[in-house]
Design a protein that fits this description.
CATH architecture of the largest domain: Orthogonal Bundle
Distance between the termini: 37 Å
Number of strands: 0
Helix content: 55-70%
Structural class: mainly alpha
CATH superfamily of the largest domain: Hypothetical protein, domain 2
Order of helices and strands: HHHHHHHHHHH
Strand content: under 5%
Length: 183
């Protein structure tokens, strides 16, 4: 739910919507799917783009329900095509698909979110104009498992909250003056 609600907003707004969903549904996906479109939109309104996000939540959870929310079975069924299948769902773009792969399906995936692109730009990598521009050049080491990928993403986001908002705060970070070189 959070992966969809966070799209194009900040965590504070997404968390407010998530809290309202928690109160109404106890974050039970079947309970979410019983809500009317109007009720669901009202609950997630704080996250913005509530009409589109309501459609995305319904799309994702309807699809997951087809597999009885058995993430291991879904993972096994789609194999290497899972990311492609996720991208076919309404409201699931590259970033949301990678978040779902990492946090729900426990596949170690680099999440090239805004904080990651801003950080890598501050570290001297140029041309990071969209999600794919960093995802193409940054892959996790084969030794990373899902927990390590989750931690890495979390650390980048925490760094971003502290030192990249605004980006001028980067100069006060422990990485100020460091630069990356691509091989």
């Amino acid at each position: 739910m959070g992966a969809i609600l966070i799209q194009n907003t900040n965590w504070r707004n997404a968390d407010r919507a998530l809290a309202q969903l928690r109160q109404a549904t106890h974050l039970n996906p079947d309970d979410l799917l019983t809500l009317s479109q109007t009720d669901l939109q009202a609950l997630i309104r704080p996250a913005g783009f509530y009409q589109n996000k309501a459609k995305a939540l319904i799309s994702v959870f309807s699809w997951l329900r087809q597999f009885q929310y058995d993430y291991a079975a879904i993972n096994h069924h789609f194999g290497h095509d899972l990311r492609k299948k996720l991208r076919e769902l309404h409201g699931v773009g590259d970033e949301t698909a990678d978040v779902m792969l990492t946090y729900i399906f426990e596949r170690p995936t680099f999440i090239s979110d805004k904080y990651a692109r801003t950080l890598f730009t501050c570290l001297g990598i140029t041309g990071l104009t969209n999600y794919q521009s960093l995802a193409r050049i940054c892959q996790l080491p084969p030794s990373f498992d899902a927990a390590m990928a989750q931690d890495f993403h979390g650390l980048i986001d925490e760094f971003g909250k502290q030192f990249l908002h605004p980006v001028t705060n980067f100069e006060q970070s422990f990485l100020a003056g460091d630069y990356l070189e691509l091989n």
